Amino acid sequence: xxxxxxxxxxxxxxxxxxxxxxxxxxxxxxxxxxxxxxxxxxxxxxxxxxxxxxxxxxxxxxxxxxxxxxxxxxxxxxxxxxxxxxxxxxxxxxxxxxxxxxxxxxxxxxxxxxxxxxxxxxxxxxxxxxxxxxxxxxxxxxxxxxxxxxxxxxxxxxxxxxxxxxxxxxxxxxxxxxxxxxxxxxxxxxxxxxxxxxxxxxxxxxxxxxxxxxxxxxxxxxxxxxxxxxxxxxxxxxxxxxxxxxxxxxxxxxxxxxxxxxxxxxxxxxxxxxxxxxxxxxxxxxxxxxxxxxxxxxxx
Length: 300
Description:
Layout: E1 4-8, H1 15-25, E2 31-34, H2 37-42, E3 59-62, H3 67-73, E4 78-84, H4 87-104, H5 112-116, H6 122-130, H7 132-137, H8 143-151, E5 156-159, H9 163-166, H10 168-173, H11 192-208, H12 212-223, E6 224-226, E7 232-234, H13 243-248, H14 253-274, H15 278-299
Parallel strand pairs: 1-3, 1-4, 2-3, 4-5
Antiparallel strand pairs: 6-7
């Protein structure tokens, strides 16, 4: 059975560069990305729940990769991975990207508060949201502790600062010999004044709020080990959950597929609303239904 890699993409952790390299090396039908659902429609790429078979998939990766997706797609020779970045650097990169887009469109530059939101724990919340069962099985109470439990079920937790070495086992697992190129989706080098302001505001916010993302990053740095396969993973710790324990606590594959389908449909709706394409999505779906009705009428 061919090797398979399933990854949860935390924004601004070199995930786009990794996905771009893998997609350039594997046949197109072997990858499924939860990146832009709008682009999937534009280029006629089916969503994961629309595929009749998933046996051909070798690389599944994106922001919406959930525990149900992992459970449904799990088979022998499968690797589960994700990545982290020092939180301040990650927000810095994300902020510069937002500022660049605002300047390109003549819009007001966003504030740090608008981007960061109500707290500084977006990374922890992403892990908990996508893997809630693992988060609860570990017995932790804070976002940091719950996220640490989630990370314990991953085979590889790469650090974007060491991504060239940390990602090599992922590429080798897929039979790819090329090295990673970090030129994809790189944050702009300009917007110096805005970036300086961002650093000052973010430091003030970190002093006044619980910063679980920073706690998580420090915990991972202190507990990361490289096993005999070259995988960078968390050592056994007080928050650890085994993947077998996780899968045993979850519904069967068929139920996981139904949950995954609902998750992706909601993600499609959310993205369309976020980018102002909700009407376009409705029209696309109506057109697709009309074509299906025509085909059905022709064959009945």
